Amino acid sequence: MKIEITVNGRKRQFDVEPNKLLLNLVRDELHLTGTKYGCGIGECGACTVHLDGEAVLACMVLAVDADGKQVDTIEGVAEDGNLDPVQEAFIEEGAIQCGFCTPGFIMTTKALLKENPNPTEHEIREYLKGNYCRCTGYVNIINAVQSAAKKLQS
Amino acid sequence: MSINKVNTHIIPMEFQYHAPTTLAEASALLEKYGDEAKILAGGTDLIPHMKQRKVEATHVINIKKIPELACIKETSKGIEIGANTKLRAIELSPLIKEKTPLLSEAAATVGSVQIRNLGTVGGNICNASPSADMATPLLALDTVVNVYNREGSKDYTLEEFLHGRGEVKLEPGELLTGMTIPLQPKNAGMAFEKVGWTTFDIATVNVAAVLTLKDGKIDHCRVTLGACSPAPVRVYQAESILIGEEPTQELFDEAVYLIAACVEPRESWRRAPPEYRRKASQALAIDALTRSIEKARRLA
Ligand SMILES: Cc1cc2nc3c(=O)[nH]c(=O)nc-3n(C[C@H](O)[C@H](O)[C@H](O)COP(=O)(O)OP(=O)(O)OC[C@H]3O[C@@H](n4cnc5c(N)ncnc54)[C@H](O)[C@@H]3O)c2cc1C
Ligand code: FES
Ligand code: FES
């Protein structure tokens, strides 16, 4: 099937089988491998991308269902080689260890801060609960989100 | 605990994809392909099932392009919610928060924000899961569901629709279009309570309560229990001993005993044994009743 998706601001045409998942389209056809396959069943959040601006799981969306829509992945977050404040905050706060979960966390954090620029710790934990990290123990991730919120407000 | 040993990287089957833009078109496709067709709403149940070959379909019918299926609106009959309305929209809707706050509470407990940005209320109900978190509160609100077929549309009470035999009451060619929540009695207090393995998990037990007070006594009353029987149930026996009485701890203890008696143990239960579900249903029902009473008092 022929589809057109705007990926990180660029219109792209694809010819895909209906059973192709958005996750595999992004990784295998576009080689945007920042978006990760963790569990494939909606539980880890490593595959989080933005679909028309909303955080969703690319492992649960058919590529054909993204036809005509806008998909943003971690690769589109930095602009002109400058890291986004959320990315900077994750690095500065030591919120990254192996880094496997990080793209998902950053995409979810960006959605959170767009909706709620100054979230409480409880709100952060609630919003990020679908993203698993097996390394950091979450404390530095929460710190990073708080620090990113401050950066974005100043 | 079961470990996921299946390859969930891909959907290991080919299918034809359809994206009808009208109900008539969708219904015609469903009729034509019968058991080989599956409706795709948010896909948060369907896609993992297809990956694990728990569901095989050679035709997938995406209903997201049918505009009238996604809406939340107030009418003279009450609140109408389209089947394809996302759980996140229900969670955040000011109208729902004001009129039926237990529905926003319940929606907010489903999975994660990423799941709620995809998952729909229609999918939650049509999946016919005993632990569907929207079904229990919708049942407590006397919800009527609207079903489309080519001859016209039909209404069922949610209780009839969720008959508990592993599927919902839909004939070939039919789909759920939405639901109507009738006007609730004035000053109704309502609450939803849930417990799962984690706060990110589906319910091991969920309970909803809707009630009003008149001259200090319980007047209108609905209590529903989910995840403990083949489909969520209204606990009529508990409702009838609550109605007409002053809300006291002793009365609640008696009522929740009747709620726990609705737990129907199943061989396939992995999440928790029957005794846990009985105890948890009592504790959650006490919380739901207490919170509803407090709200009803504040409103009265
Ligand atoms: C990680 C994770 C966590 C979850 N947590 C919860 C939770 O806490 N509580 C909970 O209740 N659920 C939970 N779920 C299950 C699921 O997300 C919800 O039930 C969701 O509401 C399903 O909606 P959907 O639109 O994604 O359904 P889909 O997967 O699109 O559809 C589900 C079923 O309903 C049928 N269907 C859909 N719409 C219609 C219609 N209009 N007419 C007829 N048939 C239709 C489909 O054919 C399919 O069989 C979770 C799922 C995941 C993956
Ligand atoms: S890979 Fe999508 S949620 Fe884990
Ligand atoms: S940094 Fe390794 S999983 Fe999060």
What characteristics describe this protein?
heterodimer; A: 154 residues; alpha+beta; Ubiquitin-like (UB roll); DNA polymerase, domain 1; 2 domains; five-stranded mixed sheet; 15% strand; B: 300 residues; Uridine Diphospho-n-acetylenolpyruvylglucosamine Reductase, domain 3; Enolase-like, domain 1; five-stranded antiparallel sheet; 35% helix; binds flavin-adenine dinucleotide; binds FE2/S2 (inorganic) cluster
Q: Brief overview, please?
A:
Chain A has 154 residues and is an alpha+beta fold. In chain A, 34% of the residues lie in helices and 15% in strands.
Structure description:
The complex is a heterodimer of chains A (154) and B (300). Chain A is α+β, with helices and mostly antiparallel strands and 154 residues long. Chain A has two domains: 2-76, Roll (Ubiquitin-like (UB roll)); 85-153, Orthogonal Bundle (DNA polymerase, domain 1), CATH 1.10.150.120. Chain A has helices spanning 22-29, 85-92, 102-115, 121-127, 139-153; strands spanning 2-7, 10-15, 48-51, 54-57, 70-72. In chain A, a hairpin with a 2-residue loop joins strand 3 and strand 4 (54-57). In chain A, helix 2 (85-92) packs across helix 5. Chain A is globular and about 45 Å long. The termini of chain A are far apart. The mean pLDDT of chain A is 97. Chain B is of the alpha+beta class and 300 residues long. Chain B folds into three domains: 3-62, Uridine Diphospho-n-acetylenolpyruvylglucosamine Reductase, domain 2 (2-Layer Sandwich); 67-181, Uridine Diphospho-n-acetylenolpyruvylglucosamine Reductase, domain 3, CATH 3.30.465.10; 189-299, Enolase-like, domain 1 (2-Layer Sandwich). In chain B, strands 4-5-8-6-7 form a five-stranded antiparallel beta sheet. Chain B has a four-stranded antiparallel beta sheet with strand order 9-10-11-12. A three-stranded parallel beta sheet of chain B has the order 1-3-2, with helices on one face. The model of chain B has no long low-confidence stretch (mean pLDDT 95). Chain A binds chain B through residues 1, 17-19, 21, 24, 37, 39-43, 45, 48, 51, 54-57, 59-62, 64-65, 108, 111-112, 127, 129-131, and chain B through 4, 7-11, 13-17, 19, 40, 43-44, 47-48, 51-52, 60, 62, 64, 88, 111-115, 117-118, 199-200. One FE2/S2 (inorganic) cluster (FES) binds next to loops of chain A.
